[in-house]
Amino acid sequence: MKKITYSVLDLSMITRDGNAATAIKRTVDLAQKAEELGYKRVWLAEHHNMEFIASSATSVLIGHVAGQTKRIRVGSGGIMLPNHAPLAIAEQFGTLETLYPGRIDLGLGRAPGTDQQTAMALRRGDLNTAYQFPTDVTALQKYFSKENKTASVRAFPGEGLNIPLWILGSSTDSAYLAAEMGLPYAFASHFAPKQFKIALQIYRNNFQPSQYLDKPYVLACVNGIAADTNEEAELLSMSLYQLFSGILTNARKPLSPPIPNLLDSWPQELLDAVHGMTACTFIGDKDTLIEQFSRFIREYEVDELMITGNIFDNTKRLRSYEILSEVFNAIKIF
After folding, report:
1. Does residue 206 sit within a domain?
2. Residues of the domain holding 232
3. Domain tally for the chain?
C-alpha cells in the first residue's frame, strides 16, 4: 500500500478586490504552503486575452514561483505548444531547469488557451500549427537530447537536460499521442470531465513503453474545496460556480466572494451545464473528502491527483489545501 501523490494547479486568478500583482502573490503563497504540506508539484496554466487570469507569461511566472520556493516541482499545466516555436520553449525551460535543477516540469497542450482571434495573433496568422503538435513535441525532445549536439540548430541552455515532458488533454486526441510517445498523461477533468474515462482507457490500452516511462502514468486534475465543515465548504464553492457560470454565459468576472444559496436562483439549464462541467469536483470536510476521493481513486486508478481550488478568501484557500493534504495522507492505495 502507498499514499496517493498530490499536486496543485493554479491559474493566478484575479480576485474582485485585487489585480495581477495580488493574484501572483496569492500564487506564491499557495506554492509555499503546498511545499510545506508535501504537495509534489505546482503547475501554472497558459491563458491569453483573459482579463482576470495573470498566468499568460507562463514561463516567467514559473521562474518567479520556483525562485520563491525551495523543493517543490514547478511547471506548466500547460504550455500551449502551437502558440510557440519549439526552440523558444526549449530555451526557456532549459533556462528554468538550469536555474532550478531537478524541479521543472513541462506539460504540453494542443489547445490555444484563448479565443480564435487571439490565437491568430499569437500564431501570426497560422492556425495550422495545431496540426503540427506531435511533430513539435518530437522537436522539443530532440532539442533536449544529448544527440542533438551535431545538429545545426541547438537549444542553449536546454540540450542534455532532463526536463520531464507531459502530454495534457481534455479530449481523446491527446490520449493517443501520450500513449504512442510513452509519456505521462495529465487530464483536465476539472473542466472537461465527459471524456475522462474513455481517454484513460485509450491511453492505457495503447501505451508504448519508452525511455521515459515503462508503464502508463495518469494525473487527473480536479476541483477541490475543503473546509472544517461541509456547510462552510459548500459556501466557499459558490465562488467556483460563479466562475463556471461566467465561462458558459460569456460573462466572465474576477474571482468573487461566495453568495449563499446562489444555485437556488439559477435556471435549470444553466445549473445542468455547470454541473456537467464540474462533475469532477470534490467539496466537503475531511471525512467527506476521504470518502469521495477514495471512491474516485479506486474507480479511475489514477497515479496522481492535481487540485485546483478557486476560493476567494486567501486564508481559507490555504486552509483548504491544508485539509486536502490531510485527506490524501489518510488515503492508502494498492
Report:
1. no
2. 219-334
3. 2
Return the pLDDT at 127. Answer: 80
Measured CA distances, 224 to 17, 27, 54, 172, 325 (Å) = 23, 16, 21, 24, 11
On whether the pTM is more than 0.85, the answer is: yes
Q: Characterize the bridge pairing of strands 41-44 and 73-80.
A: parallel
Residues of the chain with pLDDT under 70: none
Instruction: Give me the torsion for CA of 12, 16, 21, 24, rounded to 10°.
Output: -20
- Picking from 163, 179, 207, the residue at the C-terminal end of a domain is 163
| CATH number, domain with residue 82 | 3.20.20.30
Asked whether the beta carbons of 229 and 285 are under 8 A apart, the reply is yes
Pairing of strands 218-226, 304-308: parallel
Assess whether 155 and 248 both reside in one domain. no
Of 122, 139, 163, at which residue does a domain stop? 163
Cβ atoms of 165 and 183 closer than 8 Å: yes
- 196-235 pLDDT tens trace: 999 999 999 999 999 999 999 999 999 999 999 999 999 9
Residue that has been written with the C-alpha cell 474515462 in this structure: 197
Start-to-end C-alpha separation, the chain: 5
